[in-house]
Amino acid sequence: MAKLWGGRFSKETAKLVEEFTASIHFDKRLYKQDIAGSIAHVRMLAKQGIIKSEEAERIIQGLKEIKEEIEKGEFVFTAADEDIHMAIERRLHEKIGKVAAKLHTARSRNDQIVLDMRLYLKEEIRAIMQAIKELMQSLLAVAEEHIETILPGYTHLQRAQPVSLAHHLLAYVQMLKRDRERFADCYKRVDVMPLGSAALAGTTFPIDRHYVAKILGFSKVSENSMDTVSDRDFILEFLSVSAILAVHLSRMAEELILWSSQEFDFIEIDDAFCTGSSIMPQKKNPDVAELIRGKTGRVLGNLIALLIVLKGLPLSYNRDLQEDKEPLFDTIDTIKPSLTILAQLWQNIKIKGQNMLRATQKGYLLATDLADYLVTKGLPFRQAHRVVGEMVRYCQEKGKELEQLSLNEMQSFSPLMEEDAKKILDVKAAVARRNSFGGTSFEEVKRQIAKIKAELTEELLKQPE
Question: What φ, ψ does residue 151 adopt, rounded to 5°?
């Protein structure tokens, strides 16, 4: 079949080259955006008198019919089409004849693909932000039920101080909040209308780019045609933001894996989110969490892959840029289900509060509280730290916990220890005392939850007027 661009060539494209250069097998998912962009473009051409109104209507009707064919599964894609733009234009020629050739007036595939990608990414960012919100809401629901559930907080994976489970979960909510804000900020740089830049230098036709932007719902129009067709910063930024999100999801997955192990036994993941062993009948494996942790490598790799593609490209468009789509699509196809499945997993999780509380009773988690007590009695903190450190060493030698020490034993380390020191060694009271802003006290956690719930009602992305 003759290429739509084939006038310059005396030979047909080798089949091997067609297959090697074709992107139709992955960019066909952009058909809705490509058709929407073409309809907006042809409306503008008619408005500006560049083509006749009746020609525009024939083209628009043909494009709508092609969209329906694709959605019904009747459209035949072939490697000879090269990409989604040529596939649709080829079919338009078959349907309406020579007038189809006027569709491509005043544009290039170079600005056309950037338009498609920006339209597509705007939709996907909104969907991802909604999925992040739903995961945050799942975590908030668990947090609200477990404000007074206490577990060890860890540093260096060693038991450190007691915290509210809600406080621990809110740490992930804060990560996700930042992720959501980053996607909203990324959206601003995606929301730029590129069509009309043509191949690289703009066009001689009297087009109205702002009219096209209004039809397609863009808030801005790109300023430099050479930058426009070669810019993939908006995809890089999306991949970067997605990589940070993936790392957050991986950290959450790691804790789900640890907490569900027999060694921790803090939670039980619902059977619907686990798998078994082909050989060991007793096994219940946290495969969902493990896969989310594992898939993070792909998301990080996709960012690096596109950075490497771009690092040596001169202005303006180069065919290397075709390599932007698969990393982008793969990242989206990884991130979205990961968010959705984690949101559902947290809605069906069993919290073993007694096991969490029991874990706070070993490891001298209230040592800092005892040092703070000595400070209130007038001892400088560094001296108080040393005194309590000596008490901990004594406890280790005697096989005791701090709360098992008698008052006489405590006073042997410091005469400042009085009867009220024993009251310090209560886990629930210790958590309640940590009422500094952003701390783990029950009242402070309630404030944090209320604030985040209020923030989730705010619309981070607004449609242009």
Answer: -140, 165
CA distance 182 to 172: 15
> Sign of the CA dihedral 379, 381, 166, 272?
negative
Burial class (CB in 10 A: 0-12, 13-18, 19+), 366: buried
The answer to whether 244 and 230 have CB atoms below 8 angstroms apart is no
How far is Cα 348 from Cα 170, in angstroms, rounded to an integer?
18
Instruction: Look at residues 217, 218, 249, 227 and name the one whose alpha carbon lies nearest to residue 331.
Output: 249
Tens digit of each residue's pLDDT (9 = 90 or more) over 268-283: 999 999 998 888 888 8
3-state secondary structure the chain: CCCCCHHHCCCCCCHHHHHHHCCHHHHHHHHHHHHHHHHHHHHHHHHCCCCCHHHHHHHHHHHHHHHHHHHHCCCCCCHHHCCHHHHHHHHHHHHHHHHHHHHHCCCCHHHHHHHHHHHHHHHHHHHHHHHHHHHHHHHHHHHHHCCCCEEEEEECCEEEEEEEHHHHHHHHHHHHHHHHHHHHHHHHHHCEECCCCCCCCCCCCCCCHHHHHHHHCCCEECCCHHHHHHCCHHHHHHHHHHHHHHHHHHHHHHHHHHHHCCCCCCEECCHHHCECCCCCCCCCECHHHHHHHHHHHHHHHHHHHHHHHHCCCCCCCCHHHHHHHHHHHHHHHHHHHHHHHHHHHHHCCEECHHHHHHHCCCCCCCHHHHHHHHHHCCCCHHHHHHHHHHHHHHHHHHCCCHHHCCHHHHHCCCCCCCCCHHHHCCHHHHHHHCCCCCCCCHHHHHHHHHHHHHHCCCCCCCCCC
Structural domains in the chain, CATH included, are 6-105 (1.10.275.10), 117-358 (1.20.200.10), 367-425 (1.10.40.30)
In this model, does residue 439 exceed pLDDT 90? yes
pLDDT, tens digit (0-9, with 9 covering 90-100), for 32-41: 999 999 999 9
Reported as half-sphere exposure (CB side, CA atoms, 13 A), residue 385 has a value of 3
Four-residue CA torsion sign, 218, 99, 70, 317 = negative
For the chain, the straight-line distance linking the first and the last C-alpha, in angstroms and rounded, comes to 45
Give the whole-angstrom CA distance, residue 81 versus residue 202.
25
Paired residues of 285 in beta bridges: 275
pLDDT tens string 345-397: 999 999 999 999 999 999 999 999 999 999 999 999 999 999 999 999 999 99
Query: Tokens 């790691």 label which residue?
Result: 254
- Name residue, tokens 């609200």: 144
Residues tagged active-site: 156, 277
Tokens of 20: 């090697």
